[in-house]
Every structure is written in C-alpha cells, then in structure tokens.
Write a structure and sequence with these properties.
It is built from 25 helices and no strands. It has helices at residues 5-11, 28-47, 56-74, 80-92, 98-105, 108-120, 122-125, 128-140, 144-161, 164-185, 193-209, 217-230, 239-264, 276-285, 291-308, 313-324, 334-339, 343-361, 364-376, 381-398, 403-420, 425-428, 430-436, 446-452, 463-484.
Length: 494
C-alpha cells in the first residue's frame, strides 16, 4: 500500500527530505535548480574581482541575484520563496539594511499599487463589467468576427480602469455563455470563434493595461519602481507621461491584434451569430447606471483625473480606495477586496527596488554598462528601444510566470547601460516596460491560463498569434514612444 502525504511527512522526523511538508517534489529537477542557485552564490564572490567587479561583495550580490532568478524561472516554487530567500540572505550578510527594505515597502509606488488594486475590485463587485460587455456586443456583434472585436474591445476598456486579472475573470464569466450558445447553433465555431474569444479576453485586458499605470497596476508599477531605483531616483516616469504614450499605444494596437487572431483562427465575417437584440435586452435589464456602479465610476475617474493633474499617485489611489470601501460613498465590500489582492505582487515590488539599489550601490550596473555599452555605441535611440523591447518579449516568452522577476532584472540591467550611452532611460526603456505586461505567447502564463479551464484552446494555440502580436506591438509602441516622448517632456538624450 502506498504511503499518503501525511504519513510521508511524519516519516521525516528531523529533515523534510522528501519535501512533503513544504509542498515540494524533491526530484532530480528540483535538486538541479537548487544546486545551480547555490553554485552562483559560491562562484561569483570568488571570481568577482577577476571578471571586473569592484569587490567580492559585488560578486556575492550578483551571485545571489542570479540564484534568485534561477529559482524564479524553475516554476517549482511560489514566487515569494525566491524573494524571501533574497531578502533573508541580503539582511544576514549585510548587503543592505532593514531600513532600506522598510523604505522600499513603504514607497509611493508600493502604496499606489495597493490603492489601485483595491479600487479595481469594484469591476467585479458592481454591474459595470456586464454593462460594458453587453453594450459592445449589442452595437458591434453583427457577425462572429465583429462579436470577437466587441468582446476584445470590452475587455480592453474594462482593463483601462481595473486590473488585467479582474477584467479577464469577469469577461470570461460573461462571454462563456455567448460562446456556448453560438456553438449550439454552429458546432464549428468552437474551433474558430470559441478558441479566438477565450484567447482574446486576456489579451484585451493586456491591451487596455497599456493605457495607464493604473490599468495594469502590478506590472506597470513594478517597471516604474525598478526604473526609479536603478537610476537612484533620476528616472522618474510620471502618471501623465506614461498616459501620453500608453493611451495611443492601446488604441493603435487594438485593430491589428484583432485582425491577427481573426485570421489565424479563421473567424468568419459571415455565418451564424447570436442575435444582437439579445444583448440589447440584457443591457436594458441592468437599468440606468446608478448606486454602487455609478459611485465606482466616479471614484475611478476622480482617481485618474487627480493623478493626471499632478496629485501624488500614492495619495490619489489610497484616497480612492478608502472612498470605495467607506459607508455612504463606497461601492464594494472591503474584506472581499482585500482577499483578492495578491501579496506576491507587493512583495516583488519592494524586492525589485532593493535589487536595483544594490546593483547601483555595489557598482554592478556600471560593470554591466561597461561591458555592453561599447557594443551598442553608435546605435540610435530608436534601435536601442527596439532591442530592449525585443529582449523583454523573448525573456517573457521563454520563462513563463517569472514576469515579475524578468521586469525587475532587465530594467535594473538596462538602465545603467542606456544612461552610459547618454540616453534618457525614461523614454528609451518605456516600450520595454510596456512589453513586460504582454504575456500572451505561452498558455501557462497567469493571465492566459485564466481562460484555459473553459476547455476551448490547447497550449499550442497561443504561440503563433502571440508571437505575431508581440512583434506588431514592439513596432507600434516603440515608434509611438520615439515620436511622442520628446514632445511630452521625455527627451531621447540626457
């Protein structure tokens, strides 16, 4: 008789050799990743000065960082484990002070993200998502291709004002009934419309997430935080500056993205479709906008308007969050909203700031810049923007669900290189930060996987349209940043 988990856990009286108590499978793969991480921590302090690092301690910081990255990309551990690993060893070895960690965790970007995530929950707790979805389906859902566009646009617009995850969850719940109803009429639509729809819902959320920092508060705020920390506060990407490039990027990326998915999955421009009048009836059932739904809309627009007007992001978002859960003026249940917030994201933001600061303080950023800057010397800012954005796309695609770590590492590395080239990292790295939230190539990536459980697409399905979409986005976003940035107060050169 095979042993159950509890019996095996009890067997390890001193050490959790089998990993059951920790919820891990201790096999060859796990040991390989752990040994690789340990090797980085041992080797780099020893060879640090011989490879040009300022000190052995700088080598240890680099080795610890690489060890953390190895644990991230293994996908064997919860994302918080490598973070705690990095923090614990860093504090014990005095690589940074506890007050530095406290400062990072209490930064304005950290508080901004918390407030934004709280406010975003209103999209799930009020009828606003249904209202937006049914409106677009009623107005545009004349055939399958146009229904696909309507669902995609509704997901994108919702995501502008709430988080990508919230938009994806709500839209998937609304649209699965539409997909199944169409499938009952036209069974072939499962392979075309059904597949494309369930893939484009999370992609619509990613598209809307480009518009504002608050549109994808986790990824976007992480990029902004890391950029500021890597430049010792010199590279400040404000809410308004982001919006001047983000809003047109979201708009111009929409139609090419829809066309790619429509063509790849052969969604017909004609054929059976759900009667738009059905969506009109569902829209009318919601009645006039009012109550908690109206209060949420007012709170969100007030928050965004305040940030654009120059109110500190942390102040605006926390004030909006407080209003959203307050009596009389609130629109959602605070306890439920708190439970929906992922603490991994917040922990990652604090650690990203510490990591970037450590790279700057120990000269690792300058060391990397000294290696790579000469290779890139002579290239134009536009070329550097394309290269950095493309690397972000490749790394995000290769290492699924390590996106937080990839953003923090790449922005930490790229910032001193771009600065040494005499270019402004705020605008040169903006497309790279934007691409950090575009994770639609690999099906196991978190946003995409939310719709996988409905059973309409296989893991191979996102690859081709995802790669094509990313390449198109790189071109559109980079060109927009290159031409709009300098006119919005973000010069290409320092």
């Amino acid at each position: 008789m095979s042993e159950n988990k509890e019996t095996k856990a009890k067997r390890d009286l001193i050490l959790d050799i089998d990993g059951y108590a920790a919820g891990l499978t201790m096999n060859r793969t796990t040991y390989a990743y752990l040994l690789a991480a340990l090797a980085c921590m041992v080797i780099f302090p020893l060879i640090g000065t011989s490879i040009g690092l300022p000190s052995a301690k700088a080598g240890f910081v680099l080795g610890l960082t690489l060890a953390t990255v190895i644990l991230w990309i293994s996908n064997l551990f919860n994302i918080s484990y490598p973070l705690m690993f990095f923090i614990a060893i860093g504090l014990v070895c005095k690589l940074f002070e506890f007050k530095d960690l406290q400062s990072a965790m209490g930064s304005s970007q950290f508080l901004m993200m918390f407030g934004m995530f709280m406010v975003a929950q209103g999209a799930e707790q009020t009828p606003i998502a249904k209202r937006v979805a049914y409106f677009f389906l009623w107005k545009f859902g004349k055939n399958q291709a146009m229904m696909l566009l309507a669902i995609y646009l509704a997901s994108a617009i919702l995501s502008v004002f709430c988080s990508n995850l919230a938009s994806t969850v709500v839209m998937a719940a609304i649209c699965i009934g539409i997909v199944r109803e169409l499938e009952a009429v036209d069974p072939e639509s499962r392979k075309t419309f059904g597949k494309a729809t369930m893939l484009m819902i999370p992609l619509g959320a990613m598209t809307g997430g480009l518009a504002l920092i608050s549109s994808s508060p986790g990824m976007n705020a992480l990029g902004v935080t890391t950029l500021a920390a890597a430049s010792n506060g010199a590279a400040d990407l404000s809410y308004t500056r982001w919006a001047t490039v983000g809003i047109p990027s979201a708009i111009l990326c929409a139609l090419p993205t829809w066309y790619i998915y429509k063509r790849v999955f052969k969604v017909p421009n004609t054929g059976a479709a759900v009667d738009p009048e059905m969506f009109h009836e569902e829209f009318k059932k919601l009645g006039k906008i009012g109550g908690s739904e109206l209060r949420w809309v007012i709170i969100v627009f007030s928050m965004v308007g305040a940030m654009i007007a120059g109110v500190p992001s942390g102040v605006a978002s926390l004030t909006a969050a407080a209003c959203a859960i307050s009596p009389y003026i609130g629109c959602m249940e605070g306890r439920k909203a708190i439970k929906r917030i992922s603490m991994d994201m917040f922990f990652m933001m604090g650690v990203a700031a510490i990591l970037a600061t450590a790279f700057a303080n120990y000269g690792i950023g300058d060391w990397l810049a000294g290696i790579f800057a000469p290779m890139l010397k002579g290239l134009s800012p536009l070329a550097i923007m394309f290269i950095c954005a493309f690397i972000m796309f490749v790394m995000n695609s290769l290492f699924a669900n390590a996106t937080f770590g990839i953003i923090s590492i790449l922005i930490t590395v790229f910032t001193p290189i771009v600065t040494q080239l005499g270019m402004n990292p705020v605008i040169v790295l903006l497309p790279c930060i934007f691409l950090g939230a575009c994770t639609n190539v690999v099906g196991v990536q978190q946003n995409m996987f939310l719709t996988y459980e409905y059973g309409y697409w296989d893991m191979k399905d996102p690859l081709l349209p995802g790669i094509l979409t990313n390449l198109v986005w790189i071109v559109i976003i980079t060109l927009l940043a290159y031409f709009i940035g300098p006119r919005a107060g973000m010069p290409l050169y320092l």
